[in-house]
Automatic annotation (TrEMBL):
It comes from the Bacteria. GO terms for biological process: CAAX-box protein maturation. Keywords: Membrane, Transmembrane, Transmembrane helix. The keyword Transmembrane applies. This is CAAX prenyl protease 2/Lysostaphin resistance protein A-like domain-containing protein. The chain crosses the membrane at residues 12-40, 64-87, 107-128, 140-159, 180-197, 203-223, 230-247, 267-286. InterPro entries: Rce1/LyrA-like_dom (IPR003675). The keyword Phosphoprotein does not apply. Residues 143-241 form the CAAX prenyl protease 2/Lysostaphin resistance protein A-like domain. It comes from Flavobacterium glaciei. GO terms for molecular function: endopeptidase activity.
Length: 303
């Protein structure tokens, strides 16, 4: 079973603390290209040094900013591989799935269904509230965005999934020897990691309900399906399709997307509806397709 694959007598919890610190250091190294770029512009072109996250996001052209931000996740992924293989002496497959190999059909199905939901819901919002959006499409910047996004956003989303639904899920299982604690902790930490996102600053902490709820749904997917494939597909679709379809002045990614939301943001149905309605429907679809059973044991049982 997936979560048990990290349960080894020599896999003490302190190793996960050290591993997490190594992954965090990898992230800092990955941010050096962005920092070097900012320093270069401020020193040689006398530009004002950005003193806030919002200023950093607007310092370069949005495509270049996205590229520099996403590069850091390449280093994070390398850090994950280093920690899993050398500190814990596990294979990457063992923190990915319980199956003999990664099931790309599962990844593709999850990606397809969430992409479809994202596109349909975005178009519904657009046509029902046309004054809240502007058509933002510019062929050349959008083409560059597509290349950057297709190459690097899956790296970003996969690194987050490997950290939360793979590495830390098994790490907390080593500590607690049950399943509900890893599910709860990874969901809370995943949501908490988004606390500095501009959406939270703009709309308030209620937005964390969406992020924690998303983490919980991805954790349920992983435990019930005995692997991360569905979570990998969902997360990639969520960020990739979202980055290509729509942007706003207050979103985490500023992109040359097709649409731009110019409405005054507020935490409404778009925050609550996915957690209380759409996510349960999605889990139901997956449960029927992949014949999930024994929910209580898989989500709350002892190890």
């Amino acid at each position: 079973m997936f979560i048990e694959q990290g349960i080894k007598s020599e896999n003490y919890f302190w190793k996960y603390i050290i591993g997490s610190l190594i992954i965090i250091c990898s992230s800092f190294v990955g941010q050096l290209p962005l920092l070097i770029g900012i320093l270069y512009e401020t020193i040689f072109y006398d530009k004002a040094y950005p003193t806030s996250n919002e200023a950093v996001m607007r310092f370069f052209d949005s495509n270049l900013t996205l590229l520099l931000i996403l590069i850091s996740f390449v280093f994070i992924m390398l850090g994950i591989v280093l920690v899993v293989r050398n500190l814990h002496e596990q294979t990457m497959l063992s923190v990915t799935t319980s199956r003999a190999k990664l099931d790309w059909k599962r990844v593709g199905f999850s990606f397809m269904i969430w992409s479809l939901i994202t596109i349909v819901s975005t178009l519904l919002f657009y046509f029902s509230n046309p004054n809240d959006f502007v058509f933002n499409f510019k062929p050349v910047p959008f083409a560059i965005l597509v290349v950057i996004a297709v190459l690097l956003i899956p790296v970003q989303t996969s690194s987050e999934e490997y950290i939360f639904r793979g590495y830390l899920m098994q790490g907390f299982a080593n500590l607690s020897r049950n399943k509900w604690f890893p599910l709860l902790m990874t969901s809370l930490i995943f949501g908490g990691m988004h606390i500095f996102n501009p959406e939270v600053a703009k709309m308030g902490y209620v937005v964390l309900v969406y992020y924690i709820g998303t983490g919980l749904m991805l954790g349920i997917m992983t435990l019930m399906d005995e692997g991360m494939e569905l979570a990998l597909g969902f997360h990639a679709a969520n960020n990739l399709v979202g980055a290509l379809l729509i942007t706003s002045d207050w979103s985490a990614f500023q992109t040359n997307s097709i649409f731009k939301d110019i409405s005054e943001p507020s935490a409404g149905l778009d925050v609550i509806l996915p957690v209380v309605l759409i996510y349960p429907i999605l889990l139901y679809i997956f449960s029927k397709k992949y014949n999930w059973t024994n929910w209580k044991e898989k989500l709350t049982g002892n190890i």
